[in-house]
Amino acid sequence: MGLSTLVALLVALLIGLGVKSIAKDWRKKFAEDDKAAEQRRRAQIERNKAEVKSGGVVELEKGDDGVYRPKPGSE
Fold first, then answer.
1. What is the mean pLDDT of the chain?
2. Who contacts 69 (Cβ-Cβ below 8 Å, separation ≥6)?
3. Basic and acidic residues compositional bias: what residue ranges (predicted)?
């Protein structure tokens, strides 16, 4: 093995370690973002459920003609 081969292997190893480190950091960052988004989504679902239970919400259903109208009895 020549010196240039060893240098090329060393550079490739350093690049590989750098890419691995960057990927690890990105996964960690995106996991935190996903967790926050999931918490916001769950909170929104809970607010929607509470709003429906409190009344005053008209549920719509799609008619045969494609128009959404209030469900019978939800008014």
1. 88
2. 60, 61, 63
3. 59-75
